Amino acid sequence: MKSHPEHVGNLPISPYPDKIEDELEMTTVCYRPEGLEQLEAQTNFTKKELQVLYRGFKNECPSGAVNEETFKQIYAQFFPHGDASMYAHYLFNAFDTAQNGSVKFEDFVMALSILLRGTVHEKLRWTFNLYDINKDGYINKEEMMDIVKAIYDMMGKYTYPVLKEDAPRQHVEVFFQKMDKNKDGIVTLDEFIESCQEDDNIMRSLQLFENVM
C-alpha cells in the first residue's frame, strides 16, 4: 500500500493525502538550503547551529518550505489557551520577505538570527516591519491595533491579572501618542526606533511581545 505524508511533524495537514503527495513530488520535495557557509556569514549562527536548526525545520516541514496554513498550525501549539491565528498570519508575512506565500529555511533562519542575536537596532527595525502590515514604510494606528489585538487574542483569557476587554485599545492609544512625535497620524521607522530607545515602558513591552515571536 502506498504511504502518504499526512502529517507535518505531528500535525495533520490535509484530508486529501494523495493531493499533498502529488504536490510535494511536483514542487519542493527536493528543496535544499543555500550553502550553510553563506548562511553562516549572513547570520549570527555557527554552522553546527544551522545544521541543528535545519534538521528541526525539515522535521516540521519535510518539503523544505512552509506555507501559511501549516505555519499557523505549528504556531497554535505554543498557545493552546488563545487564538494565535491572526498573529501567526502577521508573523508569517514578516518572515515571508519575498511575499510569495512560502517561507524557506533561509527566510526562517535570517529572521531568527535577528530576533535572538541581533542588535537592539536590528530587532526594532524587524519589529517595525512586522507592525507595518501593508508595507508602505509607516505604521498607522489601525495597524498597531491589529497587531496588539492579535497578541492579546493569542495570550488568551488565562492571563493574570485578567485583562479588560478594552486593554488593547488603551495600550495602543498610549504607545501611539508617544511614538507619533510630529502628530501626523503615522509612525515612521525613525520615530519608532527613537521612541523605543527613549521610553523604558515601550521597550519592556516590546521585549514581552518579543517572547511570543
List the helices and strands and how they pair.
Blueprint: E1 7-8, E2 11-12, H1 17-26, H2 36-42, H3 47-60, E3 65-66, H4 68-76, H5 85-95, E4 103-104, H6 105-117, H7 120-131, E5 139-140, H8 141-155, H9 167-179, E6 186-187, H10 189-198, H11 200-210
Antiparallel strand pairs: 1-2, 3-4, 5-6
Helix pairs in contact: 4-5, 5-7, 5-8, 7-10, 8-9, 10-11
Write a structural description.
- By secondary structure, the chain is mainly alpha-helical.
- The protein has two domains: 39-118, EF-hand (Recoverin, domain 1, Orthogonal Bundle); 120-212, Recoverin, domain 1 (Orthogonal Bundle), CATH 1.10.238.10.
- It has helices at 17-26, 36-42, 47-60, 68-76, 85-95, 105-117, 120-131, 141-155, 167-179, 189-198, 200-210, and strands spanning 7-8, 11-12, 65-66, 103-104, 139-140, 186-187.
- The N and C termini lie far apart (41 Å).
- The model is unreliable at 1-31 (pLDDT under 50).
Biggest sheet statistics: 2 strands, antiparallel
What is the share of helical residues? 55-70%
Radius of gyration: 19 Å
- How many distinct beta strands? 6
The CATH superfamily of the largest domain appears as EF-hand
Spatial strand sequence of the major β-sheet: 1-2
Count of individual domains: 2
Low-confidence stretches: 1-31
CATH architecture of the largest domain: Orthogonal Bundle
Q: Give the oligomeric state of the chains in this entry, treating copies of one chain as homo and distinct chains as hetero.
A: single chain
* Silhouette: globular
- The string of secondary-structure elements, in order, is EEHHHEHHEHHEHHEHH
Strand content: 5-15%
Return the CATH class of the largest domain.
Answer: Mainly Alpha
Count of helices?
11
Euclidean distance between termini CA atoms:
41 Å
**How confident overall, as mean pLDDT?**
80
CATH topology group of the largest domain? Recoverin, domain 1
**Given the helix and strand composition, which structural class is it?**
mainly alpha
